[in-house]
Amino acid sequence: MFGKILIANRGEIACRVIRTARKLGVRTVAVYSDADARALHVEMADEAVHIGPSPVGESYLRADKIIAAALATGAEAIHPGYGFLSENPDFVDQVTGAGLVFIGPSAASIRAMGLKDAAKRLMEKAGVPVVPGYHGEAQEIVLLASKAREIGYPVLIKARAGGGGKGMRRVDHPDDFSEALSGARREAKAAFGDDRVLVEKYVDKPRHIEVQVFGDNFGNAVHLYERDCSAQRRHQKVIEEAPAPGMTPALRKAMAEAAVKAAKAINYSGAGTIEFIVDASEGLKADRFWFMEMNTRLQVEHPVTEMVTGIDLVEWQLRVASGEKLPKTQGEIALAGHAFEARIYAEDASKGFLPATGTLHHLQFPDAPPQGAAMRIETGVRAGDAISPFYDPMIAKLVVHAKDRTMALGALHDALARTEVAGSTVNTAFLATLAADADFAAGDVDTGLIGRHQDALVAVAAPSDEAIAAAALAATDAGAPGRAADPWSLLAGYAHFHTLARRVRLRFGEENILARVSARPDGRFQVVLEAPHDAINSHDLRTLPRTARWPGHVTVFEGAVGYTFAVPDPLAKADEAAAASGSLRAPMPGLVKLVRAAMGDPVIKGQPLLILEAMKMEHTIAAPHDGVIAEIATEGAQVSDGTVLVRFEEEGQG
Q1: Which terminus in the chain has less CB density within 10 A, N or C?
Q2: What's the pLDDT tens digit per position in 136-179?
Q3: Residue 139 class from Cβ within 10 Å (0-12 exposed, 13-18 middle, 19+ buried)?
Q4: d(CA 309, CA 318)
Q5: Nearest-5° angle of CA 125, CA 167, CA 614?
C-alpha cells in the first residue's frame, strides 16, 4: 500500500478520498487554488500545496503544477477524483512519466473510451449493444443533418468528448437542427476543448441505468450491480438509486455481462462505470438496452453502490493501483437493501436550475439517521464557506440506505426535511418534492420525468403566517441561546402598565411585511401581523420553528423548504436605480458568450438577446418585454450576479 498520495481535486470528493486514505494509514496531500485556501479538504489533508489562482485553467487543470506538488511532497501516487483531469489520458502519461502511479485506468483505456463515437464503434466490435446513431468522424452540417433525417426525429446531438449534459441538445424538427448544433458545439468547445459531436436516436421513454465495474492489473473484472440515474434535469443527475427499480433478473444479467465484457475489451483497471440507455416504454426487457458511454473514473453517485454492497470503492482503487488483486470475486459480491443519493446544489430550481452563489451562513445536516436506516453526508463545505462561481455548486450528497425501496425513500424524505441551508438559494425543496412525486415513488421514472412535472416540482407554497411570525420573532433575536429565560431582555425600553411591542419589518420577495412583537410574562411572545395576514396571537419559544438568523436575513425552515426573509436596515436608503424596470440583470456570475442584438434594435418579448455561460453551461437571456435596446453588454465580458446586461430605452426617449 502507498505511504502517501496526492489528491488532484477539491470539495467533497477530495474529502471522501482523504477519509478512506486515513483509514488505511495513507498520508494525503491536498492541492488548492486561491478560492480554496481555507477549504475543508485543505484542512483535512496531512499536507496542502497551493497551485494557482481560482480559475480551473490556472489551478486544478494545471497538470504540471499538480505533478510538481506530488514530487515535492514525496507522494507516490495521484488520485484524480472525478471531473478536472480524471479522464485526461495525457495527464496519466505525464503522471507515469514522472515516476508516479495514477490511481485509475491506463491512458490507453481512457483513450479507448474517451470519445463517444470511437467508444461505440469499439463496443460494437466487442458485441455490446449500442444505440442507433451516427458516430463517424465527418462533421459537416449537411452530413449531420442528413444522418439525423435517416435516424428519424427526435434525435439527440451529443458532444463526443466529456459528459454531464454539456454539449447536448434534443432536436424534434429538422428546422431546429442547425441552431441546436451550433449551441451544442459552442458548449462542447467551452467545456472540453472539442466541438465535435455525434447524433443519436432519441429514445421516447429512456431510463439511464449504469453498471459499476472494477478491474485489476491481473485481467480480473467484476461488476457491483447497477444504479438508476434517470432522475435528471438539464441532462444532469439529481437523485440516484441502487438497485434500479423494476429491474428484472434477465435484464440485470444481460447488462452486467455486457458491462464486464466492455471493461475486459479495453483491459480496464480500477473503478469505472458503463452507462446504458434503456427503453422503458414497454417495461424493462433484456433486449432493450444500449451502451451510451463509459466513465473511466469514480462516479459522483458511487456511494449508493457502496451502501448496497458494503464495499469501499476508494479502498479498492488504492489497493488495485498499489498492485493488489481485486479484494473479492464476483460470487462474493452481494446486493443488500436499497439506497438513494440526493445531490444538494446551490441553484434556483424555479429559474431553470440556474446555479447560485453565496455564503453558507447556516449549514446543518441531520445529526442521526432516520429510524431503521443508515445515512451518510458527503460534503466539502462547512458553515461559513462560500459557494464560488469558479466551481460546481454542489453543497453535499445526502445518502440513505434501508432494507427496501419504500423504507429508503421514507428515510430520504426525513433526512431532507432535517437539512438546513441558509445564505444561498438551494434545491432541497425541489429534491423533497421530487422524492414525493407519485411516479418517482412508484419507481416509474425516466429521464423526462422532471421535465414533464417541472412546474409542479419547482413550485413552493407561500410561507404560512406561522412562518412569517417566526421570522419576525427571530428578527428580534428571540432564538438566541438563553433568551427564553429572559424574554424582557429582547425588547428595548420598559412600560409599567402594558406590554411593550417592537415593530419588525420584513421583506419576502416583492412583499413588504410589518409585524409587532411583544414579550409576555410567561416567557411567550405575541406576534401580530398587519393585513393581509391573520394575527398570530402568541408563540411559545419551545415550539418556535427552526430558524437561522444571518446578516440582513432570517430563514425559517418548514420541512425541506427554507423561507428566507430580508430584514431591512431602517437606516439604509433604498437604491431606486437598482430597482428600475428598464434594465435586465445577470441572474448569476458568468461570461457573455454571444450577443444577438445591438444598441437601437427593437426587440419583442421572449426574443433571445445574449447567451451567458456559467459553470460551463449556456443560458439564453431573453427580452422580458417589448422595447428598444439602449445599451447591451459586450461579447466576452465577465459579469457578476446582478450586473446590468441590457438597458431599454424609456418611452418617449430617442
Answers
A1: C
A2: 889 999 999 999 999 889 999 999 887 767 899 999 999 999 99
A3: middle
A4: 18
A5: 150
The rounded Cα 607 to chain-centroid distance in angstroms is 29
pTM: 0.81
pLDDT tens sequence across 360-389: 999 999 999 988 999 999 999 999 999 988
* Residue 537 to residue 384: CA distance in whole angstroms: 35
Taking the C-alpha atoms of residue 640 and residue 150, their distance in angstroms, rounded to an integer, is 44
Number of Cα atoms under 13 Å in the Cβ half of residue 348: 12
Kindly give, in sequence order, each residue whose CB lies less than 8 Å from that of residue 419, ignoring residues fewer than 6 positions away.
344, 364, 365, 366, 398, 428, 560
Q: How far apart are CA 396 and CA 409, in angstroms?
A: 18
Say how far apart CA 347 and CA 350 lie, in whole Å: 9
Q: How far, in Å, CA of 569 to CA of 636, rounded?
A: 37
Instruction: With beta carbons less than 8 A apart as the criterion, state whether 640 and 358 touch.
Output: no
> Do the beta carbons of residue 166 and residue 157 sit within 8 Å?
no
Q: Which of 196, 297, 319, 549 is catalytic?
A: 297
- How far apart CA 250 and CA 625 sit, in angstroms, is 55
Q: What is the C-alpha separation between 345 and 356, in angstroms, rounded?
A: 8
- Residue 52: what residue type? G
**238, amino acid identity:** V
**What is d(CA 374, CA 376) in angstroms, rounded to the nearest whole number?**
7
Q: Phi and psi of 551, rounded to 5°?
A: -45, 115
Residue 257 has, within 13 A of its CA and on its CB side, a CA count of 9
Give per-residue pLDDT as tens, 43-61: 999 999 999 999 999 999 9
Dmax (CA) for the chain in angstroms is 90
Instruction: Judge whether 411 and 375 are in contact, CB under 8 Å.
Output: yes
User: What CA–CA distance (Å, rounded) separates 606 from 623?
Assistant: 5
Q: How far is CA 236 from CA 272, 301, 350, in A?
A: 18, 12, 16
- Relative orientation angle of helices 302-309 and 313-321, to the nearest 10 degrees: 100
Give the dihedral sign, CA 160/162/164/167. Answer: negative
Instruction: Determine whether 288 is an active site residue.
Output: no
Extract the C-alpha cell encoding 549: 438568523
Asked if residues 116 and 123 have their Cβ atoms less than 8 Å apart, the reply is: no
**Four-CA torsion 101, 102, 104, 106, nearest 10 degrees:** -90
